[in-house]
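Q: My labmate handed me this sequence with no annotations at all. I'd like to see what the chain might look like in three dimensions before we decide whether it's worth expressing. Could you predict it?
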Amino acid sequence: MTTKDKPAHTIRSGALTVTIWKNASDKGSWYSVTPSRAYKQGDQWKDTDRFDFDDLMTLAKLLDLAHTWILTQPTERKAA
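A: Here is what I predict for the chain of 80 residues:
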């Protein structure tokens, strides 16, 4: 995966985002998840992987939604 890769799916709520990435290898494909929180520093928006107490329940819900989304995707496993 490179920074040029596009996410397979993104789920947002306020400043919180869960990005789902599709990964591939010769054995098949799988998904990984990156949670982040946006914040503004001066005039510039940035992302962090640190979360406040008040973020945790919303983040848990976003991760639950990501889990559900991944489960609904067709599997592409190759025989080993």
